Amino acid sequence: MSPSLSHHAQPYSLADYGWDQACERAFAPYRADGLIPARIVRADRGSCEAVTDTGTVRADLPGAADQSDPLTAPCTGDWAALHPLTGAAPVLHEVLERRTTLVRASASRTSHGQLLAANVDTVVVTVSLAAPLKHGRTERMLALAWESGAQPVVVLTKADACADLPSAQEQVSQVAAGVDVLVTSARTGQGLDVLTAVLDGTIVLLGPSGAGKSTLGNRLLGQDLLATGAVREADGKGRHTTSWRELLPLPGGGVLLDTPGLRAIGLHDAQGGLEQTFAEIEHLAQECRFADCSHTSEPGCAVLAAVAAGEIPHRRLDSYHRLLRENAYAASRTDARLRAGREADKKDITRHLRATYRFRERQQ
Burial code of 38-55, b = ≥16 C-beta within 10 A, e = fewer? Predict the structure, then answer.
């Protein structure tokens, strides 16, 4: 066995990180070529940390610096095929096809998306009850969660700091239709048994700094493995105690992925996620007089009628419009980048053809 493949032992097998028969079938061609399966638990520039059945290894990423699209780079949660090398670090050969991807707009607002996690089964959207509720932010996170292909669950944290739990749960439930909304307190243990019962597979914690993600994660893990920090009393915001993403097996089965607190939760190509997040508006839209109704001022608009009747809060319709505009803008930037890329390819081909013709003319 290569020394690099026993970098350091671990008390878990790959099955504890989610490896199953479907993964084994997909990996069969790679195993026949002498490659070994692994799951990436932390991705850095130029290398990644991955778990295998023989331990945790540091693997090199060939050509990682040349990748122009962050969405194609290895990410926490990816299943991968590693090429073992004698006396040296293994090399990542290929990332296997992803079942789900959690993507947001990049923090720099470029046309590329930022991949937060791959192959996630449950997205836990954390909402702190120790600060004023921000429904627009919850709707953003739900859109990201639905778009990923995973199942969202909204977890209200810090219930011990809330004066009116029924009201808070009712408010959030109205913006999270079709999603379980659970009340928890990591300090008192309230609701943790129910939360554990509904979690499944690979679980990612999503939310802003100060929402209590890492504290909640530690309670689920049964030990303090995730760094936590104090929250400012002035605004209820916390510091970014988690600066990377990593996978940790849960005692009762499944895998936990803690993400850094997100200051900005921008949408990236999340049309399907928005449709599911605002399902009641999408449903009513089918009854509008005009098929292309924008739900702003058109006559016969079923959505505006529902708002006027108090069936849909005006705030929610405003949020729907705002997030649709943001998503459309992000999509237009992506389309522009793709068009620019195609134009650049055309120019490269044209230059190559011209050079070929000039070479042939000189040979005549």
Answer: bbbbbbeeebbbbbbebb
Rounded CA-CA distance 126/248 in Å is: 18
| pLDDT score, position 240 | 41
Residue 250 near residue 220 (C-beta atoms within 8 A): yes
Q: Which H/E stretch holds residue 20?
A: none
Greatest C-alpha distance within the chain = 89
Burial class from Cβ neighbours inside 10 Å (0-12, 13-18, 19+) for residue 281 reads: buried
Decide if 175 contacts 148 (C-beta within 8 A). Answer: no
Handedness of CA 347, 348, 350, 354 (dihedral sign): positive
Residues 52/40, Cβ–Cβ less than 8 Å:
no
Closest to 220 (Cα-Cα) out of 177, 186, 180: 186
pLDDT of residue 317: 97
SS3 content of the chain, % helix, strand, coil (to 5): 40, 20, 40
Pairing of the two strands 151-157 and 202-206: unpaired
Q: Tell me how far apart the terminal alpha carbons of the chain are, to the nearest angstrom.
A: 60
Q: How far apart are CA 136 and CA 227, in angstroms?
A: 27
Q: How many CA atoms lie within 13 A of 193 on its CB side?
A: 3
Residues listed for the chain: 364
Closest listed residue to residue 133, CA positions, set 98, 91, 161: 161
**β-pairing verdict for 202-206 and 255-258:** parallel
The residue with tokens 């996978």 is 247
Residue keyed to tokens 């509008």 = 288
Residue 261 and residue 211 in contact, taking contact as beta carbons nearer than 8 Å: yes
Tokens for 7?
Answer: 């970098």
Q: Is 242 helix (H, G, I), strand (E, B) or coil?
A: coil
pLDDT score recorded for residue 210:
85
Provide block-wise average pLDDT over 10 residues at a time, the chain (364 residues). Answer: 45 88 94 95 86 91 62 90 88 94 72 84 95 94 95 96 95 94 94 93 90 90 73 47 69 84 72 94 96 94 97 96 90 58 58 62 62
Three-state secondary structure call for residue 116: strand
